[in-house]
Amino acid sequence: MATEINKTVGDNVFLTTLDAAASWARANSLWPMPFATACCGIELMSSAGSRHDLSRFGSEVMRFTPRQCDLMIVAGRVVMKMLPVLQRIWLQMPEPKWCISMGACACSGGVFDTYAVVQGIDRFIPVDVYVPGCPPRPEQLIRSIIDLQEKIKSGGTYNAREFKLRILPEGPQRFDEDELIRIRERNGLKLEPPTYDPVH
Amino acid sequence: MDHLQSRLNKELPGFFPRWSTYQDQTRVVVPSEQILVTLKACKKIGFDQLTDITCVDLLEYGGSEDRFEVVYLLLNTESGERLTVKTYLNEPDLTIPSATQVWSGADWLERETYDMYGIIFAGHPNFKRLLLPQEFQSFPMRKDYPVKGRGERHNFPVITRAES
Q: pTM of the full predicted structure?
C-alpha cells in the first residue's frame, strides 16, 4: 500500500508511525535540567561549552526550572538532605522525561560510603543511562546522550507488559542484606560467628 | 606561658586550672561548671577572637577517664597569642553554658558541635541542628556511631516511572 501511495504523491510525503515521529522529535530536542552538585558539574558545563559543543546533538538548552525540562542530568553525589529536593524536582518535570546518572557518586555513592551519602540515586528515582567515571569526560557524557537518543527513538507507546515494568522500582533493593550494620543490629550489636555442626 | 598563666589566674580567684604546653601551644583545662567564668576572664585579658569550638570523643581512647572533651580555641589579635581552653563532659549530663554571650560568633560553632556530638549548650539563642536535617536522630561524629550510619541514607520513598 505504501508503494502505491508513493507512486501517487512522489517524494513529497513519507510515511511513518506517529510514535516514531514523536520519538524522533523528542530525541533531538532534549532540554537538560543540570542537577550538578559536585565536580561532575564542571565536566557538564564543559561539555556544553564551545570545545565539546553539546548543541551538535540537539540538547544544549539547559534550563534551571524543572518544568521546562525533559532530561535530568544528576552530576555529583547526593546526600540524604538533598535527596528529597532531587525527588521533588524529578516529580516537577513533565512527562515524558529521562534521567542520566553522571559519575561514580550519582551511580553508586562512589568513595563516599558514609552515613550521609545516598548510595546511588537509582535506589530512589528511575535512571535511564549511567555514565561511569570520576568525573566522566565530556565525551562520555555526549556518548550517553547519543545512547539516550537511541533509547528514545526505539521507544513508543507502552504495551501492558511494559507498563507493568514501569511500576516496579528500579535499581538495587531498598535494604541490601550485605550491609554490615544491619547484620550487627539484628544480632544485637554482637558479632558472633555462626556455630556449625561439622557432623551434619 | 608563665606570663599568661599569672594574668589569667589574677582574673580567676578561687580555683587554679591545669596548665600544659605542647609544641608552643598553651592549653588550660578547667571544670565544666567554671567554663563560662574562664572564657569571660580570657576575653578580659585580651583574647578577643574565638577561632573555633569543637569536641573530641574520647571513647576507647587510651588513658582517658572522661568521654567528651570540649575545646575552645582563642586568639589574641593584638599580640598573636593563642590559647586552648578545654573542659570534660560525661554522660548523661552533656550540658555546658553557651559562650554566645561572650562571643557572638559562638552561635554556629556551638550548633555544629551539638549537631555532630550532642553537646547541649544551655542559654544559646537559637539552639537546633546546623548541618543535618532537623529530624536526624543520632550524633554522627561520636565514636559509637557506625561510619555507614544506621540506615538514614536508605530511609526514603522510592519513586517508580509510573508514579513520576
A: 0.79
| Residues of B (2-21) whose Cβ lies below 8 Å from A | none
Tell me the residue range of the domain where B68 lies.
2-154
Domain A18-157 adopts which CATH fold?
Rossmann fold (3.40.50)
Given a contact cutoff of 8 angstroms between Cβ atoms, the answer to whether A75 and A102 are in contact is: yes
Residue B6 one-letter amino acid: S
> B154, B160, B163: which to substitute to probe chain A, counting the most A Cβ within 10 Å?
B154
Q: Is the CB of residue A109 less than 8 Å from the CB of residue A81? A: no
Model confidence pLDDT, tens digit, residues B29-58: 999 888 999 999 999 888 999 999 999 999
Quick one: cell of B73?
A: 580555641
Å from B137 to nearest chain A CA?
A: 12
Q: Summarize pLDDT for A66-106 with one digit per residue, the tens.
A: 999 999 999 999 999 999 999 999 999 988 889 999 999 99
What CATH number is associated with residue B78? Answer: 3.30.460.80
**How far, in whole angstroms, is CA A36 from its chain's centroid?**
14
Among A80, A113, A159, A175, pick the best mutation site for testing chain B contact (most B Cβ within 10 A).
A80
